[in-house]
Amino acid sequence: MPPPSLYQGVIENLHTAVLLFDDALLLRYLNPSAEMLLAASAARLLGGPAPQLLPSKALHAALMEALDSGHPFTERELVLELGAERRVTVDVTATPLIEPGRRELLVEMTQVDRQLRITREEGLLAQTATTRVLVRGLAHEINNPLGGLRGAAQLLERELPDEALKEYTRIIISEADRLQSLVNRMLGPNALPKRLPVNIHEVLERVRQLVQTAVPAAVRIERDYDPSIPELMGDQDQLIQAILNLVRNAAQAVGDHGEIILRTRTLRQYTIGHTRHKLVIRIDIIDNGPGIPAEATEAIFLPLVTGRPEGTGLGLPIAQSLINQHGGLIECDSQPGQTVFTVLLPINPEGGRNESRTRQ
Questions:
Q1: Are 338 and 258 in contact (CB under 8 A)?
Q2: Helices (H), 257-313
Q3: CB 3.0 to 4.6 Å from 287: which of 172, 250, 301, 345, for a disulfide?
Q4: Is the dihedral of CA 24, 26, 29, 34 positive or negative?
C-alpha cells in the first residue's frame, strides 16, 4: 500500500480545491488549489467556519444535511460571493466521511467560470453570425419589391393630373425610403475597419463628452482608467460609434439622476470565443439603473429587441457587429442597481491563436 505521504502529495497537486471540515463544519484541511480559489493562505483559513469561508446559505444548509444524513451531494454552477468584487462559479461535491466516533465532510470544488464564459461567448458569436445571415437574406427579399414599389409610385406621380393625389404617392415614396433605411441599419456596418493605432482612452473621452452634454446635470459619468494600456489596432470612428451606443443606453437607463462608470483594464492570455490573445482590453460601462430583466438579457443583441417604447432595437446589435469586426465581443451582466456592459478588444486581433487547434 502506498505511504500516506504519497496520498497527500497527490491531493496537494490536484487542480480541484479540496477542503475537509469536522462535524461542526470547521475547516481542518485544505489543499493549495483551495487556497488559490479562496484567495487566502491556509494559516488564515484553518479553523474557520464553513458559512464564513463559503458564503452561501443554500450551500451551508446542504453541507449540514450531508453531515446529518450521511449522503453525498453535488451542486452545479454554484455562485459564491468571495468578497465585495469577487464572484466565482464552482461545481461542488460534498462527501461525508463517517467512522465510529468521528464525522467529517470532504468538499471538492472545481471552478467553472472560464468554461462557462467561453461557452457563453461562443454562443454570442454564433448568435451574431446567424442573425447577420438571416438579416441579409431578409434584406434581399425586402429590398427588391421595395425598389419596385418606390419606382411604381414615382411613375404614378408623374401621370397624376391632380396635385392633391400626388400627396399619396409621396407618402408611399417616403415610407419606402424609411423602410429602406431601417433595413440598411439592420444590416449593420458594411465597411471593414480601417485599422490604425488607437488610444482607447481618447475614444472613451470623446464618447464621454458627447453623452455628458446631453444628460441632466445630476447624471455623473466617472472614469476609472488604466493608463498603462497600449494602443490597439482599430478603426477609431467605428469604436466611437459602438461605445457611444452603449453609453447612451446607460444614460437612458439611469434617467434624470444616477452614475455611469467607464472602466478600463487589461487581460493577459485571454480567450475570446476560440481565439486566445496575448493582451485584451476590457472596457466596462457600468450604470446604477434598474437593470435588465433576466429573461431579456439573452436577446438584447438581436435586432429590433428593445425594452423602450421609443427604441429601435438596433443600437446593441450594431455595436456588437462593430466590435466583432475588431475581433472582440460585448457581454452584459445585469442585476437591479448595477448593469455592466463589457467590451473585450484584442490589442492585436491578427495575433491570436486558435485554442481548439492548440488543444489537438
A1: no
A2: 294-297
A3: 250
A4: positive
Give residue-wise pLDDT tens across range 135-194: 666 666 676 777 787 888 888 888 888 777 888 888 888 888 777 776 666 655 666 778
Burial of 247 (0-12, 13-18, 19+ CB in 10 A): buried
Sheet hosting strand 73-81, strand order edge to edge: 27-30, 17-21, 102-111, 87-99, 73-81
- Identify which of 87, 186, 78, 53 has the alpha carbon closest to the alpha carbon of residue 132: 186
Rg (CA), the chain: 27
- Counting as low any pLDDT under 50, the low residues of the chain are 1-2, 311, 356-360
E strand or H helix at 277, and its extent?
Answer: strand 275-287
Taking a C-beta distance cutoff of 8 angstroms, is the pair 261, 286 a contact?
yes
CA 169 to chain centre: 46
Q: Coil, helix or strand for 59?
A: helix
Measured CA to CA, the distance from residue 254 to residue 209 in angstroms comes to: 17
Q: How many CB atoms lie within 10 A of CB 31?
A: 22
Cell numbers describing residue 157: 406621380
Encoded amino acid at 151, one letter: G
How distant, in Å, are the alpha carbons of 161, 167, 168, 296, 329 from that of 158?
8, 12, 12, 48, 50
